[in-house]
């Protein structure tokens, strides 16, 4: 017999039994360590013990990037909602509405402009929580728009990638975003504007096959999975066992695919240094 439920009056019962929030403790996927959510948030979602880099929301990432956490969001153009009238277990249009409500964002890419140690920078962040950060028309248009804003402002462009690849619900319209974003990168290069890519976990598929690997400088967060096809598909194709750590950031750095692996705590300082070098802008004395 549960005496709290059956005997104690409801008003008194509320003092005796308190509900614990579901996300009060977070378990590290790598070590199994339990971390208090507020401590994890204060540590930029890096697990203190194992150093595992968990997913960081776009707003938190942008606030950590710009001076004083101050930035202006740039609007992203509207695109056709469901060009192929796609449906699997539910309508694609309904799925988009669901994720827009969940993430409070129109699609997988958020654009912002602000200052990084006094230098104006345009930044884009892919949100893996929005349909796996997949590249569709809206995401592609947002990236092209962000690069266009960098051209107009004569500013460096920084992108934080996180994606499972092209968005299958949009078919060929999704695949066309690969050459479109590649051309936009070429325009930045023609104007000698820095294009810096920060690869976060995971960056795969068509995103890796286009703008994610075209940066003037390629940075990755520790342990990030970076590749085109998955390791299982590759093993089945070449009929060989893949090396330990294959497609991880550290492996790619060791084999010359990326320039550096940077801890999240050091990311802002590293990006500020690169922007200063690439734009020939002296850094503030305090930062130096």
Q: What is the number of strand segments? A: 9
Could you state the CATH homologous superfamily of the largest domain? 2-enoyl-CoA Hydratase, Chain A, domain 1
**What is the number of domains?**
2
Q: Which structural class should the secondary elements be placed in?
A: alpha/beta
What is the oligomeric state here? single chain
How much β-strand is present in the residues?
15-25%
H/E topology pattern: HHEEHHEHEEHEHHEHEHHEH
Low-confidence parts, pLDDT < 50 over ≥5 residues? Answer: none
Text of the CATH class of the largest domain:
Alpha Beta
Mean pLDDT: 92
CATH architecture of the largest domain: Alpha-Beta Complex
| Shape assignment | globular
* Major beta-sheet overview: 7 strands, mixed
CATH fold-type name of the largest domain = 2-enoyl-CoA Hydratase, Chain A, domain 1
State the end-to-end distance.
Answer: 68 Å
Verbal overview:
The chain is α/β, with parallel strands linked by helices and 288 residues long. The chain has two domains: 22-54, no CATH class; 55-279, 2-enoyl-CoA Hydratase, Chain A, domain 1 (Alpha-Beta Complex). It is 37% helix and 17% strand. It is built from twelve helices and nine strands. Strands 3-4-5-6-7-8-9 form a seven-stranded mixed sheet, with helices on both faces. It has a two-stranded antiparallel sheet with strand order 1-2. A hairpin with a 2-residue loop joins β4 (109-116) and β5. α6 (137-153) packs parallel to α8. The radius of gyration is 22 Å and the shape is globular.
């Amino acid at each position: 017999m549960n005496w709290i439920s059956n005997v104690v009056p409801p008003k008194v019962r509320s003092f005796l039994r308190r509900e614990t929030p579901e996300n009060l403790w977070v378990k590290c996927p790598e070590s199994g360590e339990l971390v208090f959510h507020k401590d994890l948030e204060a540590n930029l979602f890096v697990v203190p013990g194992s150093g595992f880099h968990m997913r960081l929301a776009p707003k938190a990432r942008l606030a950590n990037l710009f001076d004083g956490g101050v930035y202006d969001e740039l609007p992203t153009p509207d695109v056709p909602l469901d060009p192929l009238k796609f449906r699997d277990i539910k309508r694609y249009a309904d799925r988009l509405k669901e994720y827009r409500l969940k993430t409070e964002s129109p699609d997988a890419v958020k654009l912002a402009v602000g200052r990084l140690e006094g230098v104006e920078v345009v930044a884009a962040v892919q949100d893996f929580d929005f349909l796996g950060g997949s590249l569709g028309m809206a995401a592609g248009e947002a990236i092209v728009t962000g690069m266009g804003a960098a051209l107009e402002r004569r500013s460096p462009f920084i992108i934080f990638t996180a994606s499972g690849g092209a968005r299958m619900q949009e078919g060929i319209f999704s695949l066309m975003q690969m050459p479109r974003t590649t051309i936009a990168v070429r325009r930045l290069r023609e104007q000698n504007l820095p294009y810096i890519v920060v690869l976060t976990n995971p960056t795969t598929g068509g995103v890796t096959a286009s703008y994610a690997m075209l940066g003037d400088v390629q940075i990755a967060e520790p342990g990030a999975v970076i590749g085109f096809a998955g390791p299982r598909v590759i093993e089945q194709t070449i009929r060989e066992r893949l090396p330990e750590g294959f497609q991880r950031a550290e492996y790619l750095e060791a084999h010359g695919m990326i320039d550096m692996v940077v801890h999240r705590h050091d990311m802002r300082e590293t990006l500020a240094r690169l922007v200063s070098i690439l734009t020939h802008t002296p850094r503030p004395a305090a930062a130096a």
